[in-house]
Amino acid sequence: MAASIRSYLTQWTVFVPIVAIVALVFTWGRDLPSAVVVVAALLLGGAVLAAVHHAEVVAHRVGEPFGSLVLAVAVTVIEVALIVTLMISGGEKAQSLARDTVFAAVMITCNGLLGISLLVGALRRHVSVFNAEGTGGAFATVATLATLCLVLPSFTTSRTGPQFSPAQLTFAAVASLCLYGLFVTVQTRRHRDYFLPITTAGQVIDVEEHLDPPSTRTALVSLATLMVALIAVVGLAKGVSPAIESGVAAIGLPQAVVGVVIALLVLLPETIAAVRAAARDRVQTSLNLAVGSAMASIGLTIPAIAIAMIWLEGPLLLGLGGTQMVLLALTVGVGTLTIVPGRANVLQGGVHLALLAAFLFMAASP
């Protein structure tokens, strides 16, 4: 037993999260000098990469499409924790943080993850092939959730500004949870085969039949280490977030960029996992991660923030501005045309990456 424990501790994917937790204990609630911020940021990156590894181990054990949900839910936990902690300490400037972060997550997943997955898959096989029935239904759910939670608040009249009334926010939160729950049921039970990788001939590939899953003991160790890594990511991100905010302000960028930085950080594990899956000719798995993450970002984050607003003071600004709505509409339109055929080449991947570049540029220069 002792030898087994020592062998686990020699693995960097186990060692780094433990060191990150120790660093979190010594830095929590303190003003950090620049050198400590740099060290904390490096440990934060290591914890994120470790979380990717252990989430993939757990995902391999439970199999697809359940595996794609593991990382999506884990990343959403990070996102919600970061938003809530920053809203508690951010004051008025944090009133739109939830909107900025969730919208950034949608744009990054539906353009960045989706685009790079299609590009990598097409470069490998000339054409990326995926199941349009499953991916199309998931993408339609994302479009519905994004419109309901991020567009409608700009047009309602019950409250001044781009915000819901308490009753409207409750309805949006409940509807988001119901749609996400319905999606999970469809993905894991009623139409599981819609979310499995397929060949160019349209034949479903059950990954579980070709790869030996890790043992139960290994999966449990990875699950425990994943939880440790996620706690470290949340805590260290909170510690370095003041440096991020001050850095954004110092170079004259809008406050919305903070939300973009948070989204880029929390989606790093899924980005790496999606690229790896696409490189292994599992484009469907990559799209499950991309679209599932966008759905989880709205369907789980908005209800969590709605509950948190019971204790948080000030308004919750959810409605998008005109530029953001145009980018969202363009993403939905282009994404629909990309997904419906069930096949995509490098052009579609490039178009989605161009939309991501446009979003990042407009966020920095609105």
TrEMBL record:
TM regions (residue ranges): 12-29, 35-54, 66-90, 102-123, 135-155, 167-186, 219-237, 249-268, 289-311, 317-339, 346-364
Alphabetized UniProt keyword annotations: Membrane, Transmembrane, Transmembrane helix
UniProt-listed InterPro entries: Alkaline_pH_Ca-Antiporter, NaCa_Exmemb
Annotated ranges, domain Sodium/calcium exchanger membrane region: 35-188, 222-362
Annotated compartments: Membrane
Keyword Transmembrane helix found: yes
Membrane topology type: Multi-pass membrane protein
GO function term, MF aspect, one: potassium:proton antiporter activity
Lineage top rank: taxon: Bacteria
Pfam (any one): Na_Ca_ex
A GO cellular component entry from the record: plasma membrane
Protein name: Ca2+:H+ antiporter
